[in-house]
Amino acid sequence: MHCVRQKSVSVLSRQCCGGFHNLIPGFIEPAPKWNLQRQLRRTKVLSVASMNPHVKEMEYAVRGPIVIRAAEIEADLNKGVPKPFTEVIRANIGDCHATGQSPIKFLRQVVTLCVFPDLMTEPNFPSDAKDRAQRILNDCGGKSVGAYSDSAGLMVVRKDIADFISKRDGQPASFENVYLSTGASDGIKTIMKMLMTGKSGKDRAGVMIPIPQYPLYTATTAEYNAYTINYYLDEDNKWALNIPDLEKSLDAARPHCKPRAIVVINPGNPTGQVLSRKNIEDVIKFAKRENLFILADEVYQDNVYDENSEFFSFKKVLTEMGPDYNNVELASFMSSSKGFMGECGFRAGYFEAVNLDPEVVPYLNKSISAKLCSSVPGQALMDVIVNPPKPSEPSYTHFMQEKENVLSQLKEKALLTTNTFNSIEGMKCNILQGAMYAFPRIFLPPKAIETAKSMGISPDFLYCSELLEATGICVVPGSGFDGKEFLVSILFSLCD
Fold first, then answer.
1. What is the pTM of this model?
2. Cα dist. 129→115, 139, 344, 403 in Å?
């Protein structure tokens, strides 16, 4: 019992006492000195100093400081804090449902039936919605969207996507080249990860990215320790890709990286252009000549407003260029978030990868398998997007009315936005041929530019900040899209 009276108990004496001291009421064994010292010395495993440096380099302008400030202002308005406006208008991102667009009824009906099959007996659901839902459920494990699918996606959905691509392009497509993803962003990151060299310095992968650019791409190159090869879109030529400029950008980057891929966004985000077939052909020829993998971001393919413009998929143009281009590798991306659907929250998407080295495909499949699968309800939604009601089916008329209504409203907004910007002194905006954004140039007075520089911020950031504080309109500075220094611009979404 002598050991109980000691102020500290050694490991050996505790063992000798057999734990009997635990029976003494009120006895608290002090922590060993070595343990206290260890706790004092311990620092967090994950700190700003120790975390992945490539994550720290990531930037994403469409959810940056201006957007954070907008949320703070919204909180103030909810508390009754007086402002010169009553609401924040979020024109910073293409989230149409968040700004009032109604869901397409047929899409939601099919997904609802997939999620809760008991509703199949309800008369309020049309027969074509029930048929599609049952067809999808039959391909699910246990006939439930709560089960995992194959990593590449449900077979029935992949086949429907391949059929959609075939009809769109007038060229064959194989479901084996189709992969469902958690939005287009997930598919893009999957392919970009495959393209990385795993090396640093001049041996790391280089990816050509359009400027102005969608921030996902530079954020991903930073995260993956790749080298960003900026190429500038030609503002004076409807934001087209200028091949001599592509060559200059590529040549300048060679000492710093191993160029591996080129990203093309068509219709353009944030610039709103629709590439001509000739421009696409020139890009494909350039990619072949320079041995580059093409990533074609085509999520806005339904959003074409200019009567003189037409969407051509890279897959269609590449295939029609003939067998000389059969070795050009291409991944094309699609999403439920844009188009007439605007279903951002479902995070549904897919990509088609063609002309891959057959020996690479098992490794792509392995990479995708590590993520198990994309959201199965999202896969169901994507199936309805590519397999909408047919003219002979009961939901066709209403579906087409809703679809055309959304697209016509976006078209009207595109024209109104362009005309409005061009009517304001000190602003200039190209015709919005497609997508969901305007990217106007703003000619700020010298005093405003000097003020911004004295504050250590870009002039367009100052403009956007003051616009938000004075009017409640939230837009994104063009500098967040890596615009040229002289290009003081903002991003303005058509969704609001």
1. 0.85
2. 13, 16, 21, 16
